Amino acid sequence: MSINESQKSIKEIQPGGALIGKVKVPGDKSISHRSLLLGAIAEGETTIQGLLPAEDPINTAKCLKAMGVNISPIKNNEIIKIQGVGLDGLKEPENILDCGNSGTTMRLLMGLIVGRQERHFVLTGDQSLRKRPMKRVGNPLTMMGAKVYGRCTGEYAPISVVGTQLHGAVIGTPVASAQIKSAILLAALTAEGSTTVIEPSKSRDHTERMLKAFGANIQISGDMGRHITLKPGSKLTSTKVVVPGDISSAAFWLIAGAIIPGSDITIENVGLNPTRTGILDVLKQMEINFKIIKEKEIAGEPVGDIRIIHTNQIKPFHLDNEIMPRLIDEVPILTVAACFCKGTSKISGASELRVKETDRLAVMARQLRKLGAIIEEKPDGLIIKGGNKFHGANLDSETDHRVAMSLAIASQLAQENSLIAGSDAASVSYPEFWNDLERLKS
Ligand code: S3P
After folding, report:
1. Cα distance between residue 145 and residue 163, in whole Å
2. Fewer Cβ atoms within 10 A, N terminus or C terminus of the chain?
3. Residue with the nearest Cα to atom 10 of ligand 1?
Protein backbone atom coordinates (compact mmCIF):
# COMPACT_ATOMS: atom_id res chain seq x y z
CA MET A 1 0.00 0.00 0.00
CA SER A 2 1.39 3.42 -0.83
CA ILE A 3 0.93 6.40 1.41
CA ASN A 4 -1.59 7.89 -1.05
CA GLU A 5 -3.81 4.82 -0.80
CA SER A 6 -3.49 4.75 3.00
CA GLN A 7 -5.15 8.16 3.10
CA LYS A 8 -8.42 6.53 2.02
CA SER A 9 -8.76 4.03 4.89
CA ILE A 10 -11.06 5.24 7.66
CA LYS A 11 -11.60 3.59 11.08
CA GLU A 12 -14.45 4.36 13.38
CA ILE A 13 -13.45 4.34 17.04
CA GLN A 14 -16.04 3.60 19.69
CA PRO A 15 -14.75 4.88 22.98
CA GLY A 16 -15.21 3.23 26.33
CA GLY A 17 -14.15 0.04 28.03
CA ALA A 18 -10.98 -1.03 29.73
CA LEU A 19 -8.12 -2.71 27.84
CA ILE A 20 -7.39 -6.03 29.50
CA GLY A 21 -5.13 -8.96 28.65
CA LYS A 22 -1.82 -9.98 27.13
CA VAL A 23 -0.35 -8.61 23.94
CA LYS A 24 2.77 -9.53 22.01
CA VAL A 25 4.01 -6.56 20.00
CA PRO A 26 5.78 -7.23 16.67
CA GLY A 27 9.55 -7.33 16.25
CA ASP A 28 11.68 -4.24 16.78
CA LYS A 29 11.77 -2.18 13.58
CA SER A 30 15.33 -0.88 14.04
CA ILE A 31 16.74 -4.34 14.77
CA SER A 32 14.75 -5.85 11.88
CA HIS A 33 16.28 -3.45 9.33
CA ARG A 34 19.80 -4.02 10.65
CA SER A 35 19.49 -7.81 10.67
CA LEU A 36 18.49 -7.76 6.99
CA LEU A 37 21.29 -5.36 6.02
CA LEU A 38 24.07 -7.14 7.91
CA GLY A 39 22.78 -10.58 6.93
CA ALA A 40 22.98 -9.44 3.29
CA ILE A 41 26.68 -8.52 3.45
CA ALA A 42 27.81 -11.33 5.75
CA GLU A 43 29.24 -14.62 4.52
CA GLY A 44 26.90 -17.60 4.86
CA GLU A 45 23.26 -17.98 5.84
CA THR A 46 21.83 -15.66 8.51
CA THR A 47 18.54 -16.58 10.18
CA ILE A 48 16.22 -14.01 11.74
CA GLN A 49 13.60 -14.99 14.25
CA GLY A 50 10.89 -12.44 15.07
CA LEU A 51 11.58 -10.07 12.15
CA LEU A 52 8.92 -7.34 11.91
CA PRO A 53 6.67 -8.34 8.96
CA ALA A 54 5.68 -4.73 8.21
CA GLU A 55 6.06 -2.38 5.26
CA ASP A 56 9.29 -0.66 6.36
CA PRO A 57 11.50 -3.78 6.77
CA ILE A 58 9.81 -5.35 3.72
CA ASN A 59 11.05 -2.35 1.72
CA THR A 60 14.59 -2.92 3.02
CA ALA A 61 14.34 -6.57 1.96
CA LYS A 62 13.04 -5.62 -1.52
CA CYS A 63 15.97 -3.21 -2.08
CA LEU A 64 18.47 -5.88 -1.00
CA LYS A 65 16.84 -8.44 -3.31
CA ALA A 66 17.18 -5.96 -6.17
CA MET A 67 20.93 -6.03 -5.45
CA GLY A 68 21.10 -9.80 -5.77
CA VAL A 69 20.52 -10.94 -2.18
CA ASN A 70 18.44 -14.06 -1.67
CA ILE A 71 15.93 -13.55 1.18
CA SER A 72 13.13 -15.98 2.04
CA PRO A 73 9.55 -14.55 2.05
CA ILE A 74 8.80 -12.33 5.04
CA LYS A 75 5.79 -13.79 6.84
CA ASN A 76 4.45 -13.60 10.38
CA ASN A 77 6.03 -16.11 12.79
CA GLU A 78 8.48 -17.45 10.20
CA ILE A 79 12.22 -17.62 10.50
CA ILE A 80 13.68 -15.55 7.68
CA LYS A 81 16.77 -16.85 5.88
CA ILE A 82 19.27 -14.63 4.06
CA GLN A 83 22.10 -15.90 1.88
CA GLY A 84 24.80 -13.29 2.46
CA VAL A 85 26.78 -12.07 -0.56
CA GLY A 86 29.84 -10.89 1.41
CA LEU A 87 31.16 -7.36 1.96
CA ASP A 88 31.58 -6.54 -1.71
CA GLY A 89 28.95 -8.81 -3.25
CA LEU A 90 26.02 -6.41 -3.73
CA LYS A 91 25.14 -6.09 -7.43
CA GLU A 92 24.30 -2.89 -9.27
CA PRO A 93 20.47 -2.85 -9.33
CA GLU A 94 18.74 -2.69 -12.71
CA ASN A 95 16.25 -0.12 -11.50
CA ILE A 96 15.68 2.58 -8.90
CA LEU A 97 15.54 1.27 -5.30
CA ASP A 98 12.21 2.23 -3.71
CA CYS A 99 12.44 2.72 0.08
CA GLY A 100 8.70 3.52 0.41
CA ASN A 101 8.01 5.42 3.65
CA SER A 102 11.16 4.21 5.42
CA GLY A 103 13.84 6.73 6.42
CA THR A 104 15.88 3.96 8.05
CA THR A 105 15.92 2.00 4.78
CA MET A 106 17.14 4.96 2.74
CA ARG A 107 19.72 6.28 5.20
CA LEU A 108 21.24 2.94 6.15
CA LEU A 109 21.31 1.83 2.51
CA MET A 110 23.19 5.01 1.60
CA GLY A 111 25.93 3.91 4.02
CA LEU A 112 25.85 0.36 2.73
CA ILE A 113 26.25 1.19 -0.97
CA VAL A 114 28.60 4.22 -1.12
CA GLY A 115 31.71 2.02 -1.03
CA ARG A 116 30.62 -0.40 -3.79
CA GLN A 117 33.03 0.58 -6.55
CA GLU A 118 31.97 0.71 -10.20
CA ARG A 119 28.28 0.49 -9.30
CA HIS A 120 25.58 3.15 -9.55
CA PHE A 121 22.47 3.31 -7.39
CA VAL A 122 19.39 5.55 -7.23
CA LEU A 123 17.23 5.59 -4.09
CA THR A 124 13.76 7.06 -3.85
CA GLY A 125 10.69 6.87 -1.62
CA ASP A 126 7.11 8.01 -1.16
CA GLN A 127 5.92 11.63 -0.90
CA SER A 128 6.85 11.83 2.79
CA LEU A 129 10.34 10.33 2.42
CA ARG A 130 11.16 12.58 -0.54
CA LYS A 131 10.68 15.57 1.78
CA ARG A 132 12.99 14.30 4.56
CA PRO A 133 16.56 15.61 4.96
CA MET A 134 19.28 13.38 3.53
CA LYS A 135 22.29 15.73 3.56
CA ARG A 136 22.82 14.84 7.24
CA VAL A 137 23.84 11.39 5.91
CA GLY A 138 25.31 12.48 2.57
CA ASN A 139 27.67 15.04 4.17
CA PRO A 140 29.51 12.70 6.57
CA LEU A 141 29.71 10.04 3.85
CA THR A 142 31.25 12.67 1.52
CA MET A 143 33.89 13.28 4.23
CA MET A 144 34.86 9.63 3.67
CA GLY A 145 35.17 10.22 -0.08
CA ALA A 146 31.67 9.12 -1.08
CA LYS A 147 29.90 10.41 -4.19
CA VAL A 148 26.31 11.16 -3.19
CA TYR A 149 23.94 13.42 -5.12
CA GLY A 150 20.32 14.45 -4.67
CA ARG A 151 17.73 17.13 -5.34
CA CYS A 152 18.38 20.57 -3.81
CA THR A 153 22.16 20.04 -3.63
CA GLY A 154 21.86 16.61 -2.09
CA GLU A 155 19.15 17.31 0.50
CA TYR A 156 16.29 15.28 -0.95
CA ALA A 157 15.65 11.98 -2.70
CA PRO A 158 15.87 10.71 -5.33
CA ILE A 159 19.45 10.18 -4.15
CA SER A 160 22.06 8.97 -6.57
CA VAL A 161 25.22 7.18 -5.43
CA VAL A 162 28.30 6.39 -7.51
CA GLY A 163 30.18 3.70 -5.57
CA THR A 164 33.80 4.53 -4.84
CA GLN A 165 36.75 3.56 -2.61
CA LEU A 166 36.25 5.31 0.75
CA HIS A 167 38.78 6.37 3.36
CA GLY A 168 38.30 6.35 7.14
CA ALA A 169 37.58 9.60 8.99
CA VAL A 170 36.76 11.01 12.42
CA ILE A 171 33.24 12.38 12.17
CA GLY A 172 31.28 14.33 14.77
CA THR A 173 27.57 14.12 14.04
CA PRO A 174 25.56 17.32 14.66
CA VAL A 175 22.45 15.45 15.88
CA ALA A 176 22.19 12.27 17.96
CA SER A 177 20.75 10.10 15.19
CA ALA A 178 21.19 6.35 15.00
CA GLN A 179 20.45 6.48 11.30
CA ILE A 180 23.38 8.83 10.60
CA LYS A 181 25.71 6.89 12.90
CA SER A 182 24.69 3.57 11.35
CA ALA A 183 25.17 4.83 7.78
CA ILE A 184 28.73 5.94 8.64
CA LEU A 185 29.55 2.62 10.33
CA LEU A 186 28.22 0.60 7.39
CA ALA A 187 30.32 2.70 5.00
CA ALA A 188 33.35 2.27 7.29
CA LEU A 189 33.28 -1.51 6.77
CA THR A 190 34.96 -1.17 3.35
CA ALA A 191 36.91 2.09 3.86
CA GLU A 192 40.71 2.31 3.94
CA GLY A 193 41.66 2.97 7.57
CA SER A 194 39.52 3.21 10.66
CA THR A 195 36.52 5.48 11.18
CA THR A 196 35.32 7.05 14.42
CA VAL A 197 31.83 8.48 14.90
CA ILE A 198 31.33 10.90 17.80
CA GLU A 199 27.73 11.61 18.75
CA PRO A 200 26.53 14.65 20.76
CA SER A 201 24.59 12.18 22.94
CA LYS A 202 24.12 8.44 22.69
CA SER A 203 21.52 7.28 20.16
CA ARG A 204 20.15 3.72 19.97
CA ASP A 205 23.06 1.27 19.73
CA HIS A 206 21.58 -1.69 17.84
CA THR A 207 24.04 -1.28 14.96
CA GLU A 208 27.06 -1.43 17.26
CA ARG A 209 25.70 -4.51 19.06
CA MET A 210 24.85 -6.29 15.84
CA LEU A 211 28.10 -5.42 14.05
CA LYS A 212 29.91 -7.02 17.00
CA ALA A 213 27.71 -10.12 16.78
CA PHE A 214 28.56 -10.47 13.05
CA GLY A 215 32.31 -10.22 13.85
CA ALA A 216 33.19 -6.60 12.97
CA ASN A 217 36.08 -4.92 14.80
CA ILE A 218 34.24 -2.20 16.69
CA GLN A 219 35.28 -0.33 19.85
CA ILE A 220 33.02 1.82 21.99
CA SER A 221 34.58 4.50 24.23
CA GLY A 222 34.07 8.03 25.55
CA ASP A 223 31.53 9.06 28.14
CA MET A 224 28.18 7.25 27.66
CA GLY A 225 29.76 5.30 24.76
CA ARG A 226 29.51 8.23 22.37
CA HIS A 227 32.74 7.42 20.47
CA ILE A 228 32.44 4.44 18.16
CA THR A 229 35.45 3.26 16.17
CA LEU A 230 35.27 0.69 13.40
CA LYS A 231 38.44 -0.87 11.96
CA PRO A 232 37.82 -2.48 8.56
CA GLY A 233 39.39 -5.75 7.55
CA SER A 234 37.30 -8.33 9.36
CA LYS A 235 34.74 -10.14 7.26
CA LEU A 236 31.22 -10.42 8.62
CA THR A 237 30.08 -13.94 9.46
CA SER A 238 26.44 -15.02 9.33
CA THR A 239 24.69 -15.50 12.64
CA LYS A 240 21.32 -16.22 14.26
CA VAL A 241 19.41 -13.05 15.09
CA VAL A 242 16.49 -13.01 17.53
CA VAL A 243 14.46 -9.79 17.30
CA PRO A 244 12.72 -8.67 20.52
CA GLY A 245 9.33 -6.92 20.52
CA ASP A 246 9.47 -3.22 19.67
CA ILE A 247 9.25 -0.92 22.72
CA SER A 248 8.07 1.84 20.36
CA SER A 249 5.01 -0.32 19.51
CA ALA A 250 4.61 -1.38 23.17
CA ALA A 251 4.43 2.35 24.01
CA PHE A 252 0.83 2.56 22.71
CA TRP A 253 -0.28 -0.12 25.18
CA LEU A 254 1.83 1.33 28.00
CA ILE A 255 0.01 4.65 27.71
CA ALA A 256 -3.40 3.08 26.93
CA GLY A 257 -3.08 0.86 30.01
CA ALA A 258 -2.16 3.82 32.19
CA ILE A 259 -4.85 6.29 31.07
CA ILE A 260 -7.91 4.10 30.29
CA PRO A 261 -9.83 3.36 33.51
CA GLY A 262 -9.90 -0.30 34.58
CA SER A 263 -7.10 -1.36 32.20
CA ASP A 264 -4.55 -4.06 33.02
CA ILE A 265 -2.24 -5.05 30.12
CA THR A 266 0.79 -7.32 30.02
CA ILE A 267 3.04 -6.71 27.02
CA GLU A 268 5.23 -9.73 26.36
CA ASN A 269 8.82 -9.96 25.12
CA VAL A 270 9.59 -6.22 24.88
CA GLY A 271 13.12 -5.07 23.98
CA LEU A 272 14.58 -3.16 26.95
CA ASN A 273 17.82 -1.86 25.45
CA PRO A 274 18.77 1.10 27.70
CA THR A 275 19.16 3.39 24.67
CA ARG A 276 15.41 2.88 24.02
CA THR A 277 13.79 2.86 27.47
CA GLY A 278 13.31 6.62 27.98
CA ILE A 279 9.55 6.04 28.07
CA LEU A 280 9.91 3.88 31.20
CA ASP A 281 11.70 6.78 32.92
CA VAL A 282 8.80 9.05 31.96
CA LEU A 283 6.25 6.52 33.30
CA LYS A 284 8.13 6.76 36.61
CA GLN A 285 7.98 10.58 36.44
CA MET A 286 4.22 10.27 35.94
CA GLU A 287 4.01 7.81 38.90
CA ILE A 288 2.26 5.25 36.71
CA ASN A 289 1.83 1.68 37.95
CA PHE A 290 4.00 -0.66 35.91
CA LYS A 291 6.26 -3.61 36.54
CA ILE A 292 8.92 -5.36 34.47
CA ILE A 293 8.73 -9.12 34.79
CA LYS A 294 10.88 -11.98 33.47
CA GLU A 295 13.79 -9.75 32.38
CA LYS A 296 16.50 -11.66 30.48
CA GLU A 297 19.06 -11.24 27.69
CA ILE A 298 18.32 -12.78 24.27
CA ALA A 299 20.89 -12.64 21.45
CA GLY A 300 22.66 -9.59 22.89
CA GLU A 301 19.57 -7.49 23.68
CA PRO A 302 17.77 -7.25 27.06
CA VAL A 303 14.05 -8.21 26.96
CA GLY A 304 11.19 -8.57 29.44
CA ASP A 305 7.42 -8.48 29.93
CA ILE A 306 5.83 -5.26 31.16
CA ARG A 307 2.57 -5.16 33.12
CA ILE A 308 0.78 -1.82 33.21
CA ILE A 309 -2.26 -0.94 35.30
CA HIS A 310 -4.54 2.09 35.09
CA THR A 311 -3.36 4.91 37.34
CA ASN A 312 -5.51 7.70 38.78
CA GLN A 313 -4.13 11.23 39.04
CA ILE A 314 -1.17 10.90 36.65
CA LYS A 315 1.58 13.47 37.31
CA PRO A 316 2.64 15.79 34.45
CA PHE A 317 6.12 15.33 32.96
CA HIS A 318 8.94 17.28 31.35
CA LEU A 319 11.04 16.02 28.44
CA ASP A 320 14.24 17.75 27.30
CA ASN A 321 16.91 17.22 24.66
CA GLU A 322 18.90 14.91 26.95
CA ILE A 323 16.27 12.16 27.14
CA MET A 324 14.98 12.76 23.58
CA PRO A 325 17.13 10.16 21.67
CA ARG A 326 15.91 7.46 24.13
CA LEU A 327 12.22 8.09 23.36
CA ILE A 328 12.19 9.97 20.06
CA ASP A 329 9.48 7.77 18.47
CA GLU A 330 7.33 7.78 21.62
CA VAL A 331 6.69 11.55 21.67
CA PRO A 332 3.33 11.29 19.80
CA ILE A 333 1.84 8.83 22.30
CA LEU A 334 3.41 10.72 25.23
CA THR A 335 1.60 13.83 23.96
CA VAL A 336 -1.64 11.84 24.31
CA ALA A 337 -0.62 10.82 27.84
CA ALA A 338 0.03 14.48 28.73
CA CYS A 339 -3.61 15.32 27.91
CA PHE A 340 -4.67 13.05 30.80
CA CYS A 341 -2.13 14.26 33.37
CA LYS A 342 -3.11 16.39 36.34
CA GLY A 343 -1.28 19.57 35.37
CA THR A 344 0.83 20.91 32.52
CA SER A 345 3.47 18.81 30.74
CA LYS A 346 6.30 20.26 28.71
CA ILE A 347 8.11 18.67 25.78
CA SER A 348 11.25 20.55 24.68
CA GLY A 349 14.42 19.72 22.72
CA ALA A 350 12.21 17.85 20.25
CA SER A 351 12.76 19.73 16.97
CA GLU A 352 13.88 16.44 15.33
CA LEU A 353 10.20 15.45 15.48
CA ARG A 354 9.58 17.97 12.72
CA VAL A 355 11.57 15.89 10.20
CA LYS A 356 10.08 12.46 10.91
CA GLU A 357 7.47 10.78 8.65
CA THR A 358 5.46 13.98 9.24
CA ASP A 359 6.09 17.09 11.33
CA ARG A 360 4.92 15.19 14.40
CA LEU A 361 4.77 18.24 16.70
CA ALA A 362 2.46 20.11 14.32
CA VAL A 363 0.39 17.05 13.38
CA MET A 364 -0.18 15.86 16.96
CA ALA A 365 -1.11 19.38 18.11
CA ARG A 366 -3.49 19.83 15.15
CA GLN A 367 -5.21 16.45 15.54
CA LEU A 368 -5.46 16.35 19.34
CA ARG A 369 -6.94 19.87 19.42
CA LYS A 370 -9.86 18.50 17.35
CA LEU A 371 -10.61 16.18 20.31
CA GLY A 372 -10.45 19.06 22.79
CA ALA A 373 -6.80 19.03 23.90
CA ILE A 374 -5.15 22.26 25.02
CA ILE A 375 -1.74 22.32 23.34
CA GLU A 376 0.66 25.14 22.63
CA GLU A 377 3.19 24.51 19.89
CA LYS A 378 6.79 25.75 20.33
CA PRO A 379 9.58 25.55 17.73
CA ASP A 380 11.18 22.65 19.61
CA GLY A 381 8.27 21.12 21.48
CA LEU A 382 4.78 21.30 22.97
CA ILE A 383 3.17 22.52 26.15
CA ILE A 384 0.14 20.40 27.02
CA LYS A 385 -2.42 21.30 29.65
CA GLY A 386 -3.95 18.08 30.96
CA GLY A 387 -7.46 17.42 32.13
CA ASN A 388 -9.69 18.78 29.36
CA LYS A 389 -12.57 16.43 28.40
CA PHE A 390 -12.30 14.87 24.93
CA HIS A 391 -15.23 14.80 22.49
CA GLY A 392 -15.53 12.74 19.29
CA ALA A 393 -13.88 14.19 16.14
CA ASN A 394 -12.92 13.51 12.53
CA LEU A 395 -9.23 12.77 12.83
CA ASP A 396 -6.50 12.12 10.27
CA SER A 397 -3.19 10.26 10.60
CA GLU A 398 -1.83 12.58 7.89
CA THR A 399 -0.11 9.37 6.59
CA ASP A 400 1.98 8.85 9.76
CA HIS A 401 1.89 5.40 11.39
CA ARG A 402 2.69 6.61 14.90
CA VAL A 403 0.11 9.40 14.65
CA ALA A 404 -2.58 6.88 13.53
CA MET A 405 -1.95 4.64 16.56
CA SER A 406 -1.64 7.55 19.02
CA LEU A 407 -4.99 8.95 17.85
CA ALA A 408 -6.57 5.50 18.22
CA ILE A 409 -5.61 5.50 21.92
CA ALA A 410 -6.62 9.16 22.43
CA SER A 411 -10.06 8.64 20.94
CA GLN A 412 -10.77 5.74 23.35
CA LEU A 413 -11.26 8.43 25.98
CA ALA A 414 -13.58 10.72 23.99
CA GLN A 415 -17.25 11.06 24.88
CA GLU A 416 -18.47 10.20 21.36
CA ASN A 417 -17.26 8.11 18.43
CA SER A 418 -14.35 9.40 16.32
CA LEU A 419 -13.20 8.69 12.78
CA ILE A 420 -9.52 8.23 11.89
CA ALA A 421 -8.69 8.73 8.20
CA GLY A 422 -5.48 7.12 6.99
CA SER A 423 -5.68 4.44 9.71
CA ASP A 424 -3.85 1.91 7.49
CA ALA A 425 -0.65 3.89 7.99
CA ALA A 426 -0.20 1.70 11.10
CA SER A 427 0.95 -1.14 8.84
CA VAL A 428 4.28 0.65 8.32
CA SER A 429 5.40 -0.58 11.76
CA TYR A 430 2.52 -2.52 13.41
CA PRO A 431 0.23 -4.34 10.92
CA GLU A 432 -1.76 -6.10 13.68
CA PHE A 433 -2.37 -2.94 15.73
CA TRP A 434 -6.10 -2.63 15.01
CA ASN A 435 -6.71 -6.35 15.69
CA ASP A 436 -4.75 -6.16 18.97
CA LEU A 437 -6.82 -3.12 20.02
CA GLU A 438 -10.08 -4.98 19.34
CA ARG A 439 -8.85 -8.05 21.22
CA LEU A 440 -7.79 -6.06 24.31
CA LYS A 441 -11.16 -4.27 24.36
CA SER A 442 -13.31 -7.41 24.32
C1 S3P B 1 15.90 4.78 13.87
C2 S3P B 1 16.41 5.90 14.47
C3 S3P B 1 15.60 7.06 14.86
C4 S3P B 1 14.12 6.71 14.88
C5 S3P B 1 13.69 5.91 13.69
C6 S3P B 1 14.47 4.62 13.61
C7 S3P B 1 16.83 3.69 13.50
O8 S3P B 1 15.78 8.10 13.92
O9 S3P B 1 13.33 7.90 14.98
O10 S3P B 1 12.31 5.61 13.76
O11 S3P B 1 16.37 2.56 13.28
O12 S3P B 1 18.03 3.95 13.43
P13 S3P B 1 17.05 9.07 13.95
O14 S3P B 1 18.25 8.26 13.64
O15 S3P B 1 16.79 10.07 12.88
O16 S3P B 1 17.08 9.68 15.30
Report:
1. 10
2. C
3. 329
Please tell me the class of the 10-26+244-441 domain: alpha beta
**Which residues does 237 contact at the CB level (< 8 Å), separation at least 6?**
42, 43, 44, 214, 215
Task: Tell me which residue has its CA closest to atom 9 in ligand 1.
Answer: 329
Out of 328, 356, 361, mutate this one to test ligand 1's pocket (max ligand atoms within 8 Å of CB): namely 328
What is the distance between the terminal CA atoms of the chain, rounded to a whole angstrom?
A: 29
Question: What CATH number does domain 29-242 carry, 3.10.25.10, 3.65.10.10, 1.20.1250.20, 3.40.50.620?
Answer: 3.65.10.10
Q: How far is residue 419's CA from residue 148's CA, in Å, rounded to a whole number?
A: 43
Per-residue pLDDT of the chain (442 residues; tens, 9 = 90+): 444 444 469 999 999 899 999 999 999 999 999 999 999 999 999 999 999 999 999 999 999 999 999 999 999 999 999 999 999 999 999 999 999 999 999 999 999 999 999 999 999 999 999 999 999 999 999 999 999 999 999 999 999 999 999 999 999 999 999 999 999 999 999 999 999 999 999 999 999 999 999 999 999 998 889 999 999 999 999 999 999 999 999 999 999 999 999 999 999 999 999 999 999 999 999 999 999 998 999 888 899 999 999 999 999 999 999 999 999 999 999 999 999 999 999 999 999 999 999 999 999 999 999 999 999 999 999 999 999 999 999 999 999 999 999 999 999 999 999 999 999 999 999 999 999 999 999 8
Q: Considering only CA atoms, which residue is closest to atom 4 of ligand 1?
A: 329
Q: Which residues contact 218 (CB under 8 A, 6 or more apart)?
A: 185, 208, 211, 212, 228, 229, 230, 231
Domain ranges in the chain with CATH number 3.65.10.10 = 10-26+244-441, 29-242
CB of 55 within 6 A of ligand 1: the answer is: no
Cβ–Cβ under 8 Å, residues 29 and 55: no
